[in-house]
Amino acid sequence: MLDLNSDKSIYVQIAEIIENEILLGNLKEEDQAPSTNQFANVYQINPATARKGLNILVDEGILYKKRGLGMFVAEDAKKIVQKKRQDSFFKEILPEIINEASRLGIPMEDIVEYLLKYKGRE
């Protein structure tokens, strides 16, 4: 869902929506992605904004264009999205978690112990 109050641009949110659908398995290799007009109608945004979000994914090799037919999920798209999100996790999210734990005085051993317990609940 788009969050118009987010710090992220709408076109970035559009790209993330498609990525999430790929990660969840709702969009598989060779499936057609929603069109720019579909995004524009559902989210009441300019089709050019939606196109910009989809084009990001084309540039990253996650989607590809079939002339006259639209955008489709590329082979290995899920792996590409996973790698992209993993890189983001380790470069952006995890350092912030570690910094917050340090500010709160939480020892790294406690975090590791919690992670191991959490993983055991799966």
UniProtKB/TrEMBL annotation:
<keyword id="KW-0238">DNA-binding</keyword>
<feature type="domain" description="HTH gntR-type">
    <location>
        <begin position="8"/>
        <end position="76"/>
    </location>
</feature>
<protein>
    <submittedName>
        <fullName>DNA-binding transcriptional regulator YhcF, GntR family</fullName>
    </submittedName>
</protein>
<dbReference type="InterPro" id="IPR000524">
    <property type="entry name" value="Tscrpt_reg_HTH_GntR"/>
</dbReference>
<dbReference type="InterPro" id="IPR036388">
    <property type="entry name" value="WH-like_DNA-bd_sf"/>
</dbReference>
<dbReference type="InterPro" id="IPR036390">
    <property type="entry name" value="WH_DNA-bd_sf"/>
</dbReference>
<dbReference type="Pfam" id="PF00392">
    <property type="entry name" value="GntR"/>
</dbReference>
<dbReference type="GO" id="GO:0003700">
    <property type="term" value="F:DNA-binding transcription factor activity"/>
</dbReference>
<keyword id="KW-0805">Transcription regulation</keyword>
<dbReference type="GO" id="GO:0003677">
    <property type="term" value="F:DNA binding"/>
</dbReference>
<keyword id="KW-0804">Transcription</keyword>
